[in-house]
Amino acid sequence: MLNFTPLNNKPVRIMYSNRDPSTRTSAAANIFIKNLDKSIDNKALHDTFSAFGNVISCKVAMDSSGQSKGYGYMHFEQQETAQDAIKKLNGMALNDKVVYVGPFLRKREREMQTMKARRSFLMFF
C-alpha cells in the first residue's frame, strides 16, 4: 500500500483514474471539515472517515511550510455515506478539538447563502 507513503518529504496520494467528469465535479458526496487540529494529516483524516465508506479522495489544506491550515475535504463514493459521516462526526472532538463537518459548498453557493441570511436578518428588523 503506497498511499500516504512519503516521497520527497510529502505523502503520496494514489487514486483511481476516473474519466467521467460528472463524478469528479459532482459535489453531492463531498464534505468539508474545519477546526482540525494541526497534527491531523491526510492519513489521519482518511483513517477517521473511511469507517463510513469508500473514500475517493481526502485532502488536508497545507500552507507553504507544510503546516495544516486546519481544514480539509473528503470525497466519498456515495452521497449517503457522506451524509452519514456529516451526521455522526459534526460536533465531535478529533484530537481534543470540536470539528465542523458539513456538505462541501462551492464559493458561489456560500455567497448565495450569506446573501439570503443577510436579507432575512434585515427583514427581521
UniProtKB/TrEMBL annotation:
An annotated Gene Ontology molecular function: RNA binding
The UniProt keyword set, sorted, is: Repeat, RNA-binding
The record's listing under Gene3D superfamilies reads: 3.30.70.330
Q: Any keyword rRNA processing?
A: no
Do you know which CDD domains this protein is assigned to? RRM2_I_PABPs (cd12379)
Record-linked InterPro entries = Nucleotide-bd_a/b_plait_sf, RBD_domain_sf, RRM2_I_PABPs, RRM_dom
| Location of the RRM domain | 29-101
Q: Ribonucleoprotein among the record's keywords?
A: no
Identification of the protein by name: RRM domain-containing protein
